[in-house]
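Class prep. Protein, please:
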Amino acid sequence: MKPIITFIMVFLCTFVALAQTETPDTIDAKELNEVVVEAKLQRTSATVSTYIPTKRQRNAAQNGPELLNHMAIPQLGLVSGNSVTTNSGQKVDLYIDYVPASEQDLNGMRMADVKKVEYFDFPTDPRFQGSQHVVNFIMQKYEYGGYVKAYANEFFIANSGQLNLFSKLQYKRMTYDIGVGSWYSANDHKSQSTIETYRLPQLDGSIKTFERISEPDYAKTRQQSYWPTFKATYNTDNITMVNTLGANFFRSPKQNTAGSVHFIPADYPSMEYTNEQDNHSNSITYSGNWNFIFPKGNSLSFNPYYSYAHTTQHTLYSEVGGSTFANGAKDDSHRATAKLRFIHDFGKYGSVTGILNGTLLSNRTSYSGTSDASDRLTTYRVGPGAFYNFKTEKFNGLIGGGFNYDHSKLGDTSEHSTQPWMDLSIQYGFNSKNSISLEFHHATWTLASSYRSTAVIQSNPLFSYTGNPDVSPYKSFDASLRYVLIPNNKFNFAAFCNGALITNRYAFVYQATPDGILRTIQQKGMGDYSSLIYGVQGTARLFNNSLMINGQIAHSIVQNGSPFDWTRNKVLWYLQAFYYTGGWNFGLQYQSPQDYCDGYVNGAWIKNKSAYTAIVGWGNSKWSLKGTLTNPFRWNWHASSSETTSANYDVSTKYYNTNYHCYVLVSATYTFGFGKKVQRGNEATQQMGTASSILK
């Protein structure tokens, strides 16, 4: 504005001076209109979609996922907590300056330092470690200095909260990060009621059918978590080395419920029950991200990872005047992975990437109580492969493949297989305003260690469960199509479709005897699992970007083959709006009930309630304060329901918790910086250990 005003003033003064001379001016004077140049905040291409957050959006967000919600990126669905997916529900991996980011990294970001957000499908950059869908936050670079950032929130009524503290110190080529944090939950409403239908064969050839109804009237849960993390980063123009060491200490001393059990018809006596649980887990984790750029278009990335976790778990189920079932488990889990990627760029002829992935899992699990057993499982995977990528100004194509060799040993039983995998991605950018992408992916997946357990755990007098040491990795196929339109800063639109198929799958099977049900896992004869989702999403920014309205509607169809044999479908939609004025922001969100299948192993169809939220916040480059009121008119603790049907056993479950009850969230962040151009972002992260293999 100032250069334009100065130019106009100089022009007018010159014109007046000339008009006062005796010599007539032969050039007609014309009034100049003010010219406003608007920066382009969003663009798409065949390789990447780039979005520039506004100052209002950065001040309104307290962490990375919140910023994504305010930006309403058309490739992403509604961000819930720290869960980020594409608009068709596929997982999105989050990075900060090309380094993987976890929940605490995202909480520790300083929003004022986010320069832009990039979205990739099947990126070829080796720093993304082969991720299929990526959001990468690009942060402001600084010369030297450091900062301290505090982040705290409290869920009133829901009774949980966290406090995190981050600090960063950068000197020359080195950056050091230290993070510590804690989380707690004191919940007196977490329980579930069940209606189980048993169809048990009798010795005379008849089928005995009855219902077992369990209803809770007391619940108490106490949980705490503590984590420290240290990160060191070395960065030059050609070398980046990030090493992170962290630990996590989780305590859940009480997960207790009590209630009553009765039967229809009343062939068994009614009784009171108590169920007491406690769970503890300690873990340590190391992760490395090493990237090297060599001359003549060569680059190399290496990503080592190791974690160890020790988990103990105890459960005591008692029926007053009846049976008691005590179950204990201890687990020591090790997980080590390594990813090696070498890329050579041929210039206009494209690039070739060679990869080698390795995974080693080791679980030592012992059970006591209703099952006195010990599982010793070792699994490793080696997966070589290669990609070819060719791109022009408007076209970006990638094709790759390889195979995974899997070997696992449980006790004296060994299993091994070699299976191929394939990736195909085609992206075309018509211009900076619209693009289209097509993807296909096929792979086999290692199975959870607990699914191969031989222990038989009895949870109540009529129900027990076990694993199957003979199950093998399943196969998956998925394809997606997406069109993105970004005509200007005010609007964006996306249409999407994704289909997935799982074959050679394993699933829960409920085997019936005269005495009850044994839930086991079988693979042979199991039907396929498939899903399809399609829909549209749109965003409008009005009144000079003061008002943002974003919404999506989609149709989901799931088919779950034998042994469950059902097909379900659901229309899903959400709508959100944000209004910004000065340093204040106000928001409204509504999400329809989110019905879905609880994985390909379980035949349960989950029905969640809708959620509606009002948000008010204030922020600047240092402070951010926010208050959230969720579900203000819902004061019952029933959050969701699930139904499972099979030949011998059905179960209908109601889950009670704070997820969809009315609650108030109050949160605040403050960042204190020192030095010259303090670098913020990519903070130390909470490190989670290897998941235990305890049978569930």
In short: The CA atoms of residues 120 and 134 lie 5 Å apart. The chain is about 5% helix and 65% strand. Residues 1-37, 678-688 have pLDDT under 50 and may be disordered. The first helix runs from residue 2 to 19.
